[in-house]
Amino acid sequence: MDSLHLVTRTAKRQRGITLVEAAITLAILAVLVWAAAPSFSGLIERQRLAGLAAQVATDVQWVRSASVWRSEPLRLSFYSAAWGSCYVVHSGARNQCSCVANTTAATCLGDAVQLKTVAVPTSTGLSVQANVSSILFDPLHGTSTPTGRLRVVSAKAGSIHHIVNVLGRVRTCTPSGSPALPGYRSC
Predict the structure, then answer these.
(1) Which DSSP category does 96 fall into?
(2) How confident is the model at residue 130 (pLDDT cuts 50, 70, 90)?
(3) For residue 174, how many other CB atoms are within 10 A of its CB?
(4) Which residues pair with 99 in a beta bridge?
(5) What are phi and psi of 96, to 5 degrees?
(6) Residue 87's closest CA among 27, 22, 150, 161?
(7) 3-class SS at 58?
(8) Which one, of 73, 49, 56, 66, lies nearest residue 148 by Cα?
(9) For residue 4, how far is the Cα from the chain centroid?
(10) Can you tell me the distance from the alpha carbon of 146 to that of 134, in angstroms, rounded to the nearest whole number?
(11) Using an 8 Å Cβ cutoff, are 162 and 57 in contact?
(12) N or C, which end of the chain has less CB nearby within 10 Å?
């Protein structure tokens, strides 16, 4: 009987975990989270870059379509300043609209009308750059003049380029030699 009593008593002691086991488990978990944190940061930065790049590509297609259904020439103009970068979808000449620092507003002169403004402050770590100051979309044919290369750049995650051809269509890629971004062709 003593041996039966001993087995029952031992089984009661082994329910649950000890404080030492819990501390060791938490320490291992903390080391794993600490080791994974940089890769999560990189993932978040790549997602922010991809999100802004998708917005730029969508806006190019939108201004092309809007030009046709409004039956008026529309522009996509790019600006860069100390506070950041922006682009404005508007009617009129390129020099008739400009961005207002850190807002989604633009100042337009004369008969020019702002349809959309996207501002990208330097504090985001992202910027929108272009090799042209403005692209004009023709309402009759849906074409664009001039063609251009639009770049969405992240200091940490690389860049995504949009190449706008004469038909107003966008081809998206990442430059060779920059950090690999999955899902994008190489330029």
Answers:
(1) G
(2) very high
(3) 21
(4) 106
(5) -85, -15
(6) 150
(7) helix
(8) 56
(9) 68
(10) 8
(11) yes
(12) N
Tokens matching residue 172: 């998206």
CA-atom Rg of the chain in angstroms: 28
Average pLDDT for 123-149: 95
User: How many residues comprise the chain?
Assistant: 187
Phi, psi of 97 (to 5 degrees): -130, 145
Residue 123 phi, psi dihedral angles, 5° rounding: -65, -20
Whole-angstrom distance, CA of residue 157 vs CA of residue 32: 23
Please say whether the beta carbons of 157 and 125 come within 8 A.
Answer: no
What gap in Å lies between CA 59 and CA 116, rounded to an integer? 9
**Rounded Cα–Cα distance for residues 95 and 86 (Å):** 14
Which two three-digit tokens encode residue 140? 């009759």
pLDDT at residue number 115: 94
Q: DSSP assignment, residue 156?
A: T
